[in-house]
Amino acid sequence: MTHSFAADHATPQPGTSPEPSAEPSIEPSSEPGVERGAAGTALGAFGMAGAVGVFAFLLHMLTQYSPRIGPGYAGWQQDAVDTPLAALRWFLGDMTEPLFYKSDLAALGLLAGAVVAWWAGRRGSKWAGSLSYGTGLWPWVLASASMSLILSNLMFGWMLDDGWQPTFVPFVCVAPALVLMYGAGWRTCITGAVLGAAITTPLALLFIPTIAEPLGLPAVVGSVLAMSVGSVISFLAARRMPWLVLRKHRPPTQPELPPSSFNRNLAGDAVWAARRVLKDFTETHFVANELAAACVILAVAAAFVLNPALPSYGTGLLPHILFAQALTSAIGVSLWRGWYRDGGWAATYAPVVSVAPAAVLAYGGSWTAIVGGAVMGAVLAPPLARAISARLTAGFHPVIGNTAAMAVSTAVALPLIGLLH
Predict the structure, then answer these.
(1) Whole-angstrom Cα distance, residue 414 to residue 404?
(2) CA torsion sign, 413 to 415 to 419 to 421?
(3) To 10 degrees, what angle do helices 399-420 and 219-239 make?
(4) What's the pLDDT at 258?
(5) HEC letters along the chain
(6) Among residues 83, 79, 109, which one has the least CA distance to residue 96?
(7) Which residues of the chain have a pLDDT value below 50?
(8) What is the pLDDT of residue 126?
(9) Do residues 99 and 357 touch, judged by C-beta distance below 8 A?
(10) Counting Cβ atoms within 10 Å, is residue 404 exposed (0-12), middle (13-18) or buried (19+)?
(11) Which of 68, 106, 157, 383 is least surrounded by Cβ atoms within 10 Å, i.e. has the fewest?
């Protein structure tokens, strides 16, 4: 399988204030009235990117020693139609397809990390961070997203005989967003699952061949555009469903102020930024947890070492993708750190799941693609997501703006990178 094939097939809270926020009840990220320092933020963010880069380099070096255990990506689609085990693996792989990993082992790592973080959080442990923005809704988020993914595979999995299909799209948009907007309960859970599978997957099947492909853009543009448009349609429909009632916003509890020492503040900013970069790896799953992120990275790395022909569509470019993702997050967190002030938020995760990995796949993992995709994604996607989300009215989740920003920034960045390549 060639890298060009893989690139083509990769993939407010209600109220009166127009100021965008990521999700309801976002956990606070900085002290009241205090912005994270540039030096500490850059130190932590680029330190984490460097650590991921070293890890990715070692992973690349280990490729030659791989035992090549287990099936590769080639033929997985057709097998998923014919055998239950391959279908189950495809379903699990869909959970990490938004990260461009497409690995069942990586999905198990993601789930394991999230479960441990949930377990630790229930016992008051601070080391594991929070899940789903401290709302306590992660089990419902996972349930609705998983149900939507099951429906998507049941409804459209038969089309895998013709090759790759965007069965993964409802896992990271309508279903989890609806739970965060309307709260826990089976009615919300099932409603989100049905709307996500019935609307976003068909839109992706439509947009990829009619918009992305004619423009010479990777399939991720059509996929995330479908997520954005599908979310608009779904939230319009949700307004007319009497069994759905918008959650009330819970103001976040402000953290304790750190010591005033410059060194302590520098270290605190660095730790925050490093954790923030890790969180961006699971933000698209509405998990936003550094432990879950570390686990999914380690798990996909294990899958790559076992057989490099499986993760990231069998391209062998997983190490390049990992570094590009960490780098674009680090640049974004450093550039837009002011938006995290007073518990705020920025869509620094947007290029992690769109521009950066798409550029790597489109241009074969070159340094121009890695650095160019990381820089352009970090510069374009977060402010665009913020501008769109700021204009959403009550009852519309910012995932609409975030995914729209992914589509536009990828469509703009990739041709520009092509001129430099």
Answers:
(1) 16
(2) positive
(3) 170
(4) 44
(5) CCHHHHHHHCCCCCCCCCCCCCCCCCCCCCCCCCCCCHHHHHHHHHHHHHHHHHHHHHHHHHHHHCCCCCCCCCCHHHHHHHCHHHHHHHHHHHHHHHHCCCCHHHHHHHHHHHHHHHHHHHCCCCCCCCCHHHCCCHHHHHHHHHHHHHHHHHHHHHHHHHCCCCCCHHHHCHHHHHHHHHCCCHHHHHHHHHHHHHHHHHHHHHHHHHHHCCCCCCHHHHHHHHHHHHHHHHHHHHHCCCCCCCCCCCCCCCCCCCCCCHHHHHHHHHHHHHHHHHHCCCHHHCCCCHHHHHHHHHHHHHHHHHCCCCHHHHCCCHHHHHHHHHHHHHHHHHHCHHHHHHHCCCCCCHHHHCHHHHHHHHCCCCHHHHHHHHHHHHHHHHHHHHHHHCCCCCCCCCHHHHHHHHHHHHHHHHHHHHHHC
(6) 109
(7) 1-33, 251-262
(8) 84
(9) yes
(10) buried
(11) 68
What is the rounded CA–CA span in Å between residue 47 and residue 36? 16
Q: Yes or no: say if 266 and 36 are a contact pair by the CB < 8 Å rule.
A: no
For residue 55, how many other CB atoms are within 10 A of its CB? 17
8 Å CB contact between 235 and 8: no
Structure tokens that stand for 160 in this block:
């895998």
Asked if 271 and 233 touch (Cβ cutoff 8 Å), the reply is no
Confidence at residue 249, expressed as pLDDT on a 0 to 100 scale: 64
